[in-house]
Amino acid sequence: MLLIRSHFRLQTGLVVSVTMAAVLPAVPSLGALPPDSASTQPSNPEPAQASADVVQAGRVFVLTGITGASRRTKHLSQMIGRYARANEERLSVEVIDWPRFDVGDTRPSMISLLEEDELNRTRARLVAERIREARRVDPDTNFFLLAKSAGGLMAILTCQSTDSSGVPLLADGTFERIVLVSVSFPEDRDVSVLHAKSKNGVFSYFSARDPVLLAAQALSGEKPAGMVGLAQNKNAKTWQLEYSKAEGLDNDGGHWGSFREQYFGLYIMPLLRPSESTIPAGWRRGE
Length: 287
Fold this sequence. Notes:
Low-confidence stretches: 1-54
CATH topology: Rossmann fold
CATH class: Alpha Beta
Oligomer: single chain
Distance between the termini: 40 Å
Structural class: alpha/beta
Radius of gyration: 18 Å
Number of helices: 8
Number of strands: 11
Largest sheet: 9 strands, mixed
Strand order of the largest sheet: 2-1-5-4-6-7-8-9-11
Order of helices and strands: EEHEEHEHEHEHEHHEHEE
Number of domains: 1
Strand content: 15-25%
Shape: globular
Mean pLDDT: 81
């Protein structure tokens, strides 16, 4: 069973959480690599190895792009659920629809949602408070953070968030892994706070063929990390994956291409599995 949680802040200031339970059909082929890749692509080992007889629980927090929750994020949640079911793992997904939080800007523009301003910092604090509370209630579950497009900046602001006394809302090592997909913040953005909040690395997928980020570059004059990669890639906890047309999978290199079923299952989903301790081949580690 997949649990999909979304929460919204109304104009009254009340936060409403919605949980939907969906029984998803078994998909026997999911969870396994495509036939050609399974035999030809080795994995990158990580030190930690989960016990084979222990079913670990995981929780994926998804930070959406500026369009918020949509049919695409719903499909993403369902896809993660199918993979988890096929691998007999306990995995829940919470889509955090941060662009629709009521923080005094009732009709935010798309441009304003890309800015590092006080309104977005307020949104980030609400996200951090939600995750901190989830950790308090559920201290043993492995947390993962998946940030898409403008959700990348929200991930940074969330990890930077503090309470009124200046104490970080999220402890170091809150997440097992942080995964950035086609993020819109500039390539030279400092992501050190993400490294601090992630136990096992920050993973960033990028594609030079992304038309949305190409347009963003034309407007801002800055190269998005989701198009050219993170410039600060010297940290050994940084992993990057560049789109390659030669892979011949269902990813076309577009803004949502990495969320296509085959590509996602091979390269992204293993990073979100609580019992998985290997990194798919293709991800390159910083040095």
